[in-house]
Queue: 3 jobs
Job 1
Amino acid sequence: MLAVRLICVGKLGEKFWAEAVREYEKRLGAYCKLEIIELPEQRLPQTPSAGEIAQALDKEAALIDAKIPQGATVIALCVEGKELSSEQLADYLGRLTVTGTSRLCLVIGGSCGLSDKIKARAALRLSMSPMTFPHHLARVMVLEQLYRALNIAAGGKYHK
């Protein structure tokens, strides 16, 4: 069974986000072994300089890097990434498993995004949209699309 680690910078605050995440964790149990890791977002001043942002992203990158399992295929969620349909994501994940990939690591950055170091490590830079979403919503969206893609790959009827 595919082992999936979702690394998220920032904590879920509101109860409704946590409930949505729990629902997809439950659904994904049929398709993968899911682990969600939350890392602290670095504190920044109200109007941070480019240098302060870069320093914060570097600190977050070190924390993220330490949590990426050895041998895992990394997918970085970033606005400049490639946009895929649900079917294309299902195909991508299917090709990974056929080639022997057993560990997948998806990474969602905090409010300032992801460090270039993490993006460079990724086998795929994935964008859900050119629009900006709060990372809480992005987490739910990633889990839903992961569920949808794995269901499609398994020949399920969830996707219409």
Job 2
Amino acid sequence: MSLQPVAVADDESTTLGIEIYARLRRDLIAGHLKPGERLRFRQLSSIYGVGIAPLREALSRLVSDQLVRFEGHRGYTVAPLSLSDLHDLCALRTELSCNALRRSITRGDEDWEAEILAALHRLERTPLPHSVEDRKIVDEWELRHDRFHYSLIAACDSPWLLHFCGALSDHFQRYRRGVIVVTSSSQELLKRVRDQHRTIAEAAIARDADRATAVLAEHFQGSVEVVIRNYEEVSLSLSAGNGDEAN
């Protein structure tokens, strides 16, 4: 019996689609593409150096991530930000993250404890930016901040819980990015945030779930309050073209 050649799919376009998806997603979360901004294929193709097909694939995935919206008459646009979305996002993030933290405190071992301490140390050693234009500093701080919060819940033993906590954290980063300079310019606020990080870490390692989750919830709520106080300053209020979202 003769062997028939096996057809091998061309993965080049798929790989390119995944790559551009990751780049677009990173830029959306970082705020480099503004809320409500129209995403035109020709412009994106020029900026990212790719063709229409991988862009279309990437944008379709980003619609599923709720970072991009598609409307028949407008095409693709960056998902808007709003206070109502912020409150909903924070409430769900708090609920799931506190659940994951409790589970991690129950299941975590010495390696989990060591990772928390290492992530906290790296975060505390990271300078905060003096301007939102300091993209590399902002990116590094966000990376280490995410690592610290992930380390707290990493032992929850639930891939789905980790997935949803990560998605909610990414969405909240869109809001936090706009006020990170406010945090760094206020010594009182900066001290409060750092004290909360350290308290959460110490309580988690001490297996004090009630204390750890209470301070985590307070920490999240504090971030929301900072965003709300600076709502207009960081241009989170929506343009006239997105008026429905402002209500």
Job 3
Amino acid sequence: MFRRNVRTCLAPAQPVSLRQLTRRALLCDATLAAMASVSFPAYAQHGTTGLVSPPLRLDDTWLVDQTGRKRLLSDLLLQRVTAVQTIYTGCSSVCPLQGALFSAVQERMPQIRARYPVQLLSIGIDPLSDSPSALHAWLMRFQAGPGWTAATPALRDVDRMRTTLSGSALPLGNLADHATQIYCFDARAMLRWRSDDLPRADEICDVLSALGRT
């Protein structure tokens, strides 16, 4: 169902300034260089990859987004096709690479033809530090647009969410060991696909496109 072909990167649908394009190009180039030169460890919380069969619905829970608004996970996911990542704003190792990865996906989103809106969701897994202001600053660091939200669940819900997302039976590691997989949901808020660690932006877009047509 999901093809792994590489798409041609088209120009953004909306005009942007030369300065914005240059900054984004430099960010993407730096990310690719870093990913090519670093050998990433096998993260403690890493389960299956590929299609999730049968599709899985996460327990509904409250999250607080970058504006301070309290929102149910189901409300964030329903009637949209969503790529989800887990991050924490104090991370200085892989989380900046994850942010740059979603930034690259965001650039390609206008070319995705789907029946439902396509969005990105960064879930903060350190509620003690991932405050609305910290989430907002993290999004602004990667020039997030309106289709990219960040939100943090309550401390009591973090571990259950991390375990369900990854599908791993292994004990959770510390925050620095969090998974760098991307999790894709269909418009019924069902988890349908788990990536490898730090997948290609084109791969994520292919999956979002396929889910958006179903």
